[in-house]
Design goal:
Structural class: alpha/beta
Strand content: 5-15%
Bound molecules: zinc ion
Radius of gyration: 17 Å
Oligomer: single chain
Shape: globular
């Protein structure tokens, strides 16, 4: 059975994807999806003007238009720009902890199976440093809280994607009380928790906790290439028994900040 839930998280060549907006507009017939490129992205998505031009170009083609707002990093957008989008995904791709920047790229490549089966290169460093892991998790909550309360994100993209996810046992890496605080932050503010196909996060126990807490959810293939079936997503939804009516359908439900 193919999943017919709305896919909010899709990239195009307007940031780091390989597919044009016009081709993305055509694949909506295959299954319902929007478009949500990175903000900021190098010389392509730098400011309000770039975002509004993107919104115009994509909406003219009939696409629902969001952004993947880089939490903790993105230069602020005007409230009017954020409100004019159909939805806003917020996601963390790097984190500054005690003045040191920790990039997530290698962990991401590992989780996407792009390291040719090699082990996660930073495994030793992260598993040996419990205080650093704890600070990274606390900092994550701070940055997400800012995204929820000040940026007004509608969806938390790949919610448990950090280098700790690449250590192999998310129930060990993410203390239950941390998971519960992250979920509560989303539930209290009507922010949807994304089920992310590319990274395969969050894990089942997290999704079950979120369902029990009354969370909303959102599908995100996070594809940068051609549209592929949401195989992993369908399995994750089934394993955690997530009700389809709790999933967003291409538009925001919370009042924009
Ligand atoms: Zn992302
Ligand atoms: Zn993405």
């Amino acid at each position: 059975m193919s999943l017919r839930l709305f896919d909010h998280h899709i990239h195009s060549e307007r940031s780091d994807g390989t597919v044009s907006l016009a081709d993305r507009a055509r694949s909506v017939a295959v299954r319902p999806h929007g478009i949500s490129d990175h903000y900021p992205w190098r010389d392509k998505m730098r400011n309000d003007d770039d975002v509004l031009r993107y919104l115009d170009d994509a909406a003219t083609l009939g696409l629902r238009v969001g952004l993947e707002y880089d939490l903790g990093v993105a230069p602020p957008l005007l409230a009017s720009t954020r409100r004019s989008l159909h939805y806003l995904i917020g996601a963390v791709h790097q984190l500054q902890v005690d003045g040191v920047r920790y990039g997530y790229d290698v962990a991401g490549q590992f989780l996407k199976g792009r390291l040719g089966g090699k082990p996660f290169p930073d495994h030793e460093r992260w598993s040996a440093d419990e205080p650093l892991r704890r600070r990274l998790l606390e900092r994550t909550l701070e940055v997400v809280r800012e995204g929820v309360l000040e940026v007004g994100i509608d969806i938390l993209g790949h919610p448990t994607f950090t280098p700790l996810q690449a250590l192999g046992d998310p129930e060990a890496s993410y203390p239950v009380e941390w998971q519960e605080r992250l979920i509560e932050l989303c539930v209290a503010n009507d922010v949807a928790i994304e089920v992310n196909e590319s990274y395969g996060v969050p894990h089942t126990a997290f999704l079950v906790r979120a369902r029990r807490a009354g969370a909303r959810f959102s599908v995100g293939s996070d594809t940068h290439f051609a549209l592929r079936p949401l195989t992993k997503t369908a399995e994750m939804i089934a394993a955690a028994d997530l009700p389809h009516e709790r999933f967003l359908a291409g538009k925001r439900v919370r009042t924009p900040v």
